[in-house]
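@channel sequence for tomorrow's demo:
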Amino acid sequence: MRVMAQMAMVMNLDKCIGCHTCSVTCKQTWTNRTGMEYVWFNNVETRPGQGYPRTYEDQDRWQGGWELNKRGRLTLKAGNRLKNLLTIFSSPKMPSIQDYYEPWTYDYETLTDAPLQEHTPVARPKSLISGKNMDISWSANWDDDLAGAPELAKDDPVLQKVSDKVRFEFEQTFMFYLPRICEHCLNPSCAASCPSGAIYKRSEDGIVLVDQDKCRGWRKCVTGCPYKKIYFNHRTGKAEKCTFCFPRIEVGLPTVCAETCVGRLRYIGLVLYDADAVLEAASVEDDRELLDAQRQVLLDPDDPQVVREAERAGIPRDWIDAAQRSPVWSLINRYEVALPLHPEYRTMPMVWYIPPLSPVVDVVSDTGEDAEERGNLFAAIDSLRIPVEYLAELFTAGDTAPVTAVLKRLAAMRSYMRDINLGREPDESIPEAVGMDGESLYDMYRLLAIAKYDERYVIPPAHAEQAHGLEELATECSLDYEGGPGMGGWGPFGEGSGGTTPIAVENFQALKQRQTTNTLGDPEDKERRVNLLNWDGKGKPEGLFPPKPGQDRGAPELMDGTDPDAETDPKP
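structure tokens (generated this afternoon):
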């Protein structure tokens, strides 16, 4: 057993409202630079839909991820090392800019400088790549809210795997939103595809990063990633990807997408896993066994043997404590309601999802029956307008049993908690029907429904003894390379962010202090601050000057240094 630590995320799809706040804040933080106009480290897709880039899940076309060869050994779906080297100067198995979208702006100068005329001038869209006029036909959010569903739905690779009845009744079905970031896999095919070894997985926390100094722009990583979450910066000739906001993670702060999530649907925590068991788990023959195999790779942090092995591997004690409190571990292995995205790619993804249940309640309510009664909810799961088969193709390689089990646990939680909230005696047969007890079901409800900030994000900060190594990693993954945004006066977060500012842990310590304090100012610093807005102009503002020796800090003092409360002789 070789214990290692991994930062992981779980998203509750029942809570996602499709507001795209996570995408916008991620865009402003990480990809608001020239050459990255089409890049979305975080994007929110409408399901059913083609996704971004379009039809990225069609691995027969894009050749991403892993597969088992005739001898039962894992090999890249795009081909072995020799095949990759032979096609290193031309990688045809890769989405084109049209599959993402050609970034554009509008000819606003026509609107501002056009002479007076009979007709209102029109700002034509112009390509940010060629500068020529263009017709907009696709973007990252083109099929949002089922827009153009009759024409676009037929190209959804997941929808094509289920029955003809689903496609025929598509306009009568519900939709849900699927936020996506890099999966930071345990078995990343992007790293295995990179000829120059620029993509690496940090041993401290499992975050997958790109060394910008080593990257040569071969773009084999784009082909190798089945989730198509690695992008090519056409301005710098480098590959870039989601960094899991590692500067924030290192000081115990959640990612930007999680921090700004309106629905509070994201959970971040540390999990421990057996690195020696990853290859065996990813190599199981049946795709439908991959879910259980990956769950077994994750180790129980409360197991004394796991704790001993973790300490022997050099994992700090507070990190082990964080793993024991991790919401990710609880949702994946304790309550078993979180599922991985496309486990059949065999990359062992570490961003998991809780499938949506809300439409089940809607189905029951439309019949006039009690939508929260256990029997009605359980029966409705089997007759969803969008069948469980669709969710199974997303999260369990087509196996409907685990998805049905998750939905029944979520339904049982609703039914069980309704009795408690209405002041009735809870029915203990409800949790027993889904293999849980009442206490566990209540704990799951608390985590999913009313968990506080520090319960949703259990992120141990990096240790001081790791600071030098982490600083070097930040330099390797930085954007300060020739022609990059760190050169020529650009800042690290965009063209308008000033001069070069290195990403350092100290910068984010102040950010953490400001975001986690209960007051506008740090309580330890409150007495030393001066509020001139409350000063009436008489005497000295409290706190403006340090107190004299022996004087109480809160004692008032006049401008001449005398105490106004001291007894003085009356004037004659």
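heads up for whoever presents: Residues 471-508, 556-561, 563-572 have pLDDT under 50 and may be disordered.
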